[in-house]
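Quick log. Single chain, no ligands specified.
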Amino acid sequence: MCGLLGVLSKENNLEKYQNILNVLKHRGPDDEGVFVDKNIFLGQRRLAIIDLSPQGKQPMVLKCEKAHSKLIVNFNGEIYNYKELKRELENSGHDFSSNSDTEVILHSYEEWGIESFKKFRGMFAIALYDEDNKELILVRDRFGIKPLYYYFDEDNFIFASEIKAFWSFEFIKKEIREGAIEEFLFFGYILQPNTFYKNIFVLEAGHYLKIRLGNEGFEIEKNKFADIKDYYFLPKEKIFLEEAIKKAKEALLDSVNYHLVADVEVGLFLSGGIDSTVLLYLMRELKQEKIKTVSAVFPGTIYDESEKINELVQKFNTDHLELKITGKDFLENLESIFYYMDQPTVDGINTYFVSLTAKKAGLKVVLSGLGGDELFYGYPSFFNLTKINKIKTILKYFGIGYFLKLFAGEFDIKLNKLADIINSKNLEEAYLIYRSVFNKKLIFSLNNDFSINHLPKLNQFIEYQNKFVSDYNFISFLEMFYYLKNQLLRDSDVFSMAHSIELRVPFVDNVLFEKIVPIPDEYKIKNNISKFLLKEIIKDRVSDKILNQKKQGFVVPIELWLKNEAKEILQKEILSSNIFNKK
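-> predicted structure:
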């Protein structure tokens, strides 16, 4: 796990950019590496996880008698199946000088080219420089777990692991992108491939870029090597419940086993919810003798999960560290939170604090339950949207949406949302309205200069909807494509790396998806019980209190803090804002 920085430029005095790596030191406090040659600069801050020796240092140059070209790699992430790939490559005549997954990337690209990206099981943002062809290749994993941002003008192409690195280049202006504020107020996050800022982009999940410096400037080619939609087009299997439970458990054991690959200790974020409980159970099933768990709890609030967490700690006998977070802690860390946030989001502060706990526990790697709700149908959206979708035509016919609008007025967000969902054109539009923070009417009342033209289209996948075998299947895809990718994974990356913590997500795994998506819907939601399949796996190992808990999510008491400890700051910022209507 690392922080990457790279520059392909018309100029050749690129050593001066090495100091900018300090901006990314929190992503990799263990080491620093640089490769500079004429028009290319590659820099990395290293968090050593696999092959802790100097042989694992990056940027790494391909050294092999079989090599036909000079390749240099800069890599952030983990390739969990690197040992199998290494054996396959050795059988084909490749020589290795390290035990790192980084070197496997070099040999894989030398052997298979672009096809190698499809073979990688893991989370990755990779920069490969082909010195012979003067070509830079950037690639990002299927789900977008690891970030990769880029900027280009007539003279420079720059990429980095975090947006803040770009502000160290004097020729890059920090300007808010037109429409970014409206987009944020609607979604609560920024939709990729855009960012909050003008001319700063993020490489989409499952894509790669090829960049060449030609006589006329940069030649940039973008292609896709993987698409998560393909998993959702797989036909549903005809299997009995017992077989489905067995298949799910085996697939999850396999994923967790791969996500435990490391040369350092791997811990677990323990929230008390179903997803982290399942991961804890599976770690024990895999004979992990010593398991270190960490939690951030909020005493004196309705979000305090201490009781459930302590029950699990006792049940599974873990080495546990718990950090109690108050409104005072929130205020003291607020400046740091905004610094690492990079661009506006309404989420992620929970990850900031639990990652701080992990650091205090001496961990460098933790497993997280992110993705469990999306894959196993845990969100209320699966119930609510499918129910409304079944009767939406009737509600529309009787004008229920129109009357709700009248009754709601301008500021009743929930009723306005419900009315907009009823009036929506399709399930994707209904989903995005359901997930939105503010409705359109309220957004435009916040600032008369906001434009409806700046809001994204709400029917991006209308041509594919008939290919999804069910509403549940389509909602699962939408939760993955929008919410998980743009908010949960992005926020988890910046806030875990703020404390030099590598966050791994066993529920977000391509091999797991191939096995779990085809399992029939009725085993994921059964008798109005969400995540039924996951609960069946652990039902004999945990109490009914854990098993039957109401869906809450790992949330922090932001509303409470804003009304109390942070009230003065909030009022000051709002009243001094030149963006929002003060009323």
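The first strand starts at residue 2 and ends at 9.
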